[in-house]
From TrEMBL:
The lineage of its organism: Bacteria, Pseudomonadati, Bacteroidota, Bacteroidia, Bacteroidales. InterPro entries: Glyco_hydro_43, Glyco_hydro_beta-prop_sf, Glycosyl_Hydrlase_43_Enz. CDD domains: GH43_Bt3655-like, GH43_Xsa43E-like. It holds the Pfam family Glyco_hydro_43. It comes from Bacteroides intestinalis. This is 1,4-beta-xylanase. Keywords: Carbohydrate metabolism, Glycosidase, Hydrolase, Polysaccharide degradation, Signal, Xylan degradation.
Length: 645
């Protein structure tokens, strides 16, 4: 089973998406993400300190430094604790700014905190800092300050300075309002006394501003009160303005999925996914120990169903920026507690050490494509160890030039990218190149087969149709709901493309030259001895066509031969036996640099099994009469291809 989706490559510059109205030519393309947060579990005295985590896709996270602090709060704060870190990439693309609440509740409680901490770095490793105590520095206005909470930084292009904004509450007034001040050039203090920025109707905390299409969007935790002044509902709201100085238009709509329920959220933060038009609105479910998010493309309309981050830590209020490959390597060198390949699992290089070739995640349903000197491998991402059922949410892409050294790229397509899918399961897929574009044919568990497109084999891919190319209705001979899966594409020498697919029954049809429409009649493959389960694959060798496919259950791979793409097919027998510890068997066959390869999956990794599979590669050989020799599955795999001198 395989999964594929689509997103035309939109190259986004590496900038903290929470701010910039302008792009700098000095900025590099981001390939990963950095999450600055404080911890919500473990030793209480160590929770209120800054920690870092990294991700390849902004969804699946790994803590750096074994989830230990990367900066000691005692070294940078007045109270000995910091909360709510906000990190920002500067306008030059090379300087980083971080601000945090100066508050140590484990020692001093919640009654009051004096101010905030400012930090600055040129490499994300070494940080200078300054401490701002509002009561002591600006006694005339802030002498009776109770709270100074959740500071954030944004670049103001109208004055060329960095604005720091935060929530203030005074002892004599329960109202929580946003104040701001401009930081000095060293980012160690304010230029002048903070000024009121925005006062919401009922008060607000945890603001985060992002700029899009001429408008500033301020997301925050707001609330609604009754006539008696009692809070009756709270959640994430937003206000908008064309200027950082306002006026701000308050929208009383609640954006988070939990508003009005007993589950409360705070610490909202917004960031834009790399190479995508999609934004992530994340928030801290502080009363239940979870961190979730909702998506948007316009910052007004958000998905209704919250999603959870995958992570090995328990973050409290934090923020995210995009990072480059170089920065990711630098962070890993300093604080990496696991291999960079695990932390930045889509933007790293690794070596295969036999079969399975990929050991840092579970992969299934391989498809392969040769482009010039490179072999591209496309897989589904299986569920975790000992997964009881198929749970594929992402498709993955890898490349090699020697069958030993591999590169993994950012996740190019997710099942959630397909608006028409109802199954939430990314099944088998196949990628081909035609007319200078790469087409990824993906299947889902019951919603059909779609097609995504990209200008690069590594993606990102964009849904080309906004609907399935094929559905269960096209499987005229089938009676079960998951018949429309496992697409395989074959392109003739004259450019005519064909698509094969199916479960229990095998179908095929021509594709139009645009590769996103069926051309003519859909037909069914039948021949003596044909016991078809799923996973068709068609290739050609010395004038002969080969149809390989999974048969029976647990699945083996069988094959047939023909002189024509439409048959008649002649059954030739089994090619591959049951692959170890896996009830399914799904193959790709490809010629690369003079050798033929059989790519498949098994359940050989620790914790592996029928729904936790791993891709393997062994050689494919032909007999003199052009029939196929049985595959010999090995743990050694295939040797590296030596470079020609």
């Amino acid at each position: 089973m395989i999964h594929r989706l689509i997103s035309i490559a939109i190259i986004s510059l590496c900038a903290n998406i929470a701010i910039s109205a302008q792009n700098s030519s000095k900025k590099s393309t981001c390939e990963g993400y950095l999450f600055a947060y404080f911890e919500g579990s473990g030793e209480l005295a160590k929770q209120e300190q800054i920690r870092f985590a990294v991700s390849a896709d902004g969804i699946n996270w790994k803590a750096l430094n074994n989830n230990e602090p990367i900066i000691s709060s005692a070294d940078i704060s007045q109270t000995g604790g910091v909360r709510d870190p906000h990190i920002l990439r500067g306008e030059d693309g090379e300087t980083f700014y971080m601000v945090a609440t100066d508050m140590f509740t484990r020692k001093n409680g919640w009654d009051s905190n004096p101010g905030i901490v400012l930090l600055k770095s040129g490499d994300l490793i070494n940080w200078t800092h300054g401490i701002i105590d509002l009561e002591k520095t600006y006694p005339e206005r802030f002498a009776n300050t109770k709270w100074v909470w959740a500071p954030q930084t944004i670049y103001d292009p109208t004055v060329g300075k960095y604005m720091v904004y935060f929530t203030v509450r005074f002892h004599y007034n329960e109202k929580l309002d946003f104040y701001y001040a401009y930081a000095n050039k060293d980012f160690t203090a304010f230029e002048s006394e903070p000024t009121l920025m925005f006062s919401t109707k009922y008060g607000a905390i945890d603001g985060d501003i992002i700029f899009k299409d001429g408008m500033y969007h301020l997301f925050y935790k707001g609330n609604t009160k009754n006539e008696q002044g009692e809070e009756v509902i709270n959640g994430i709201q937003q206000a908008t303005s064309k200027s950082l100085h306002g006026p701000w238009t308050e929208d009383f709509t609640y954006l988070d999925a939990y508003a009005g329920t007993r589950t409360h959220v705070e610490g909202s933060s917004i960031f834009k996914l790399n190479n995508s038009e999609e934004y992530i609105l994340m928030y801290d479910l502080y009363s239940s120990g979870r961190y979730e998010f909702q998506r948007s493309t316009d910052l007004y309309n958000f998905t209704k169903t919250p999603e959870s981050f995958s992570k090995d830590f328990h973050p409290r209020h934090g923020s995210v920026i995009g990072i480059t490959r170089k920065e990711a390597i630098r962070l890993n060198k300093k604080w990496g507690s696991t291999p960079l390949s695990t932390q930045m699992d889509s933007i790293y290089s690794f070596k295969s050490d036999g079969n399975p070739i990929i050991t840092h995640k579970f992969t299934a349903d391989p498809a392969a494509l040769v482009v010039k000197d490179t072999l591209w491998l496309f897989t589904g991402q299986d569920g975790g160890a000992d997964s009881p059922r198929y749970n594929l949410k992402n498709w993955c892409v890898f490349s090699t030039t020697d069958m030993k050294n591999w590169t993994e790229y950012p996740i190019p397509l997710r099942i959630s990218d397909l608006s028409w899918d109802r199954s939430k399961n990314a099944y088998a897929s196949h990628v081909v190149e035609k007319n200078g574009l790469y087409y990824w044919y993906i299947s889902t568990n019951g919603s059909g087969i779609g097609v995504a497109v990209s200008h690069r084999p590594q993606g990102p891919y964009k849904d080309a149709l906004g609907k399935p190319l094929l559905t269960r209705e096209d499987c005229f001979a089938s009676t079960h709901g998951w018949a429309c899966i496992d697409p395989a594409i074959y392109i003739e020498d004259d450019g005519q493309a064909w698509i094969f697919w199916g479960n229990r029954e095998c179908y095929y049809a021509k594709l139009k030259d645009n590769m996103i429409e069926i051309d003519g009649e859909i037909k069914q493959i039948k021949f003596n001895g044909f016991s078809f389960t799923e996973a068709p694959w068609v290739h050609k060798y010395k004038g002969k066509y080969y149809l390989t496919y999974a048969t029976d259950f647990p699945e083996k791979i069988a094959y047939a031969m023909a002189d024509n793409i439409e048959g008649p097919w002649e059954y030739k027998g089994l090619l591959n036996e049951v692959a170890g510890n896996s009830t399914t068997n799904h193959q790709a066959i490809i010629e690369y640099k003079g050798n033929w390869y059989f790519i498949y999956h098994n359940g050989a990794l620790p914790g592996g099994g029928g729904a936790s599979r791993s891709v393997c590669i062994d050689h494919l050989y032909y007999n003199k009469d052009k029939t196929l020799k049985r595959i010999i599955m090995t743990s050694e795999g295939v040797p590296a291809i030596k470079k020609k001198r």
